[in-house]
Amino acid sequence: MDNLRVYVVTYNVGTSSPEEDLRGMLSWTGHKHEKSPDFYILAFQEVKAQPQNMLRDTLFEDPWTYTCKQLLRKEYIKIKSIRLQGLLLVVFCLKKHLLNLREIESEYTRTGFSGMWGNKGAVSIRLSIYGCSLCFVNSHLSAHDNQLKDRIDDYNSIVQDQEFHVAETSKIFYHDYVFWTGDLNFRLLEEYDKTPEEIERMILKKEIKPLLEHDQLRAVMKKGEAFSELTEQDPDFPPTFKFSVGTQFYDHKRRPAWCDRILYRVNSHNYENVTLKADQLSYKSHPSYTLSDHRPVTAEFVIKIPQQPQIVADKAGPSLPVSVDQVFSDFAERVVEFDKIVSWNDKDENKAIYRLKKEIPPTKEDWIGIFKEDFCSLDDYLTYEYVSKCASPSPETPTKHPHSPKLQRPKKFEITFPELPNRCKGKYCLVYFSQTEDKVTSVLGISNPFPIIENESD
């Protein structure tokens, strides 16, 4: 079994901008000798959502995504982000895993005003890596001590409503690993008759466990009313809400509570001969961040991913897989392989040749994008062309194997880019995306970096 590290962040930013250094929150040092997380899962709530901000963020990244991307860009690719008003979920992955990602998809559910408004609800992103399925959920549930039933209803609406287009994992809890986080807004039980001042005195005495015994989330999990499918490590940090903004002091307008939580689920026995497992390495708050009335909370996990079988030569016969672990799928890291591209000209019609190393279902939605060599987001393409429109079988490809007419060689195709954006100079690469009509996306291939040079006739 191989390990992958997953680092989860939840932060209700209270409409603030990222004016503080985020490296502490991300446990990010940038030192190459340290073990970096394979995934960063960043869940924000109450990102500024006025109409003018929403319009700007459709054209440009919101400040929180942009700041995190700039911090992580040397090692990570932003795989996917989804926003629902103030709710924002962003997934980053180490660049080395890019060609192992399959079936990336997002979903959202509104629960505000009986499902008509997105001020409360959930956003989610699912994907597969090395054949394992992961689902990440960021939710912001109903507020206030007396709205416990609404929070329970919110949760169950989200679980019922969210539907993905990957058949085997169409629901959240069908995935191998689920990480659910956000401002869940669970408070202390209403019948717990302590005042904010009394609760703060208990916190100062580090009496965390007696307080946690009266936590609403733990109560509903125990009763099976909500979140009982998930596991949470006991928080050993003080309540993360409600603080006076810009200070380390609780605001006594509300009783302190653990609103900001990170839970997880492992479907350990989804497969024969393999037991999946998640080990939680940390669960903590970050009290130095005072931009809002919440404190960010982070957790790091190590999850087990079955190795692909090693192939060894057998003198007596064909190569055989030798592995005690189950093979999840007929997985090929690089499904699409590009021929080496020497250079392109900025004013010419440019072509590239690629071959399919395995059969993939034909679709009108497959596309190839042009990215800068050092791109750090799958959204950062300069331009793209649909394969169905601009690719055709390469004339140099033989149709049959010379020694066996029935055997087909890997098919070769030629893709044409009729024009490039203006001032498109420097080093670039091509990335092949397989995409369904439902916008389920897989990364299947990437070309070598190549220069785009100025046409000498200009």
UniProtKB/TrEMBL annotation:
Q: Where does the Inositol polyphosphate-related phosphatase domain start and stop, copy by copy?
A: 2-309
Q: Name one GO cellular component term.
A: cytoplasm
A GO term for molecular function: phosphatidylinositol-4,5-bisphosphate 5-phosphatase activity
Gene3D superfamilies (alphabetical): 2.60.40.2840, Endonuclease/exonuclease/phosphatase (3.60.10.10)
Q: Which GO terms describe its biological process?
A: phosphatidylinositol dephosphorylation
The record, for PANTHER family, names:
INOSITOL 5-PHOSPHATASE (PTHR11200), LD06095P (PTHR11200:SF275)
Q: Which family does it belong to?
A: Belongs to the inositol 1,4,5-trisphosphate 5-phosphatase type II family.
Q: What is this protein called?
A: Inositol polyphosphate-related phosphatase domain-containing protein
Source organism per entry reads Callosobruchus maculatus
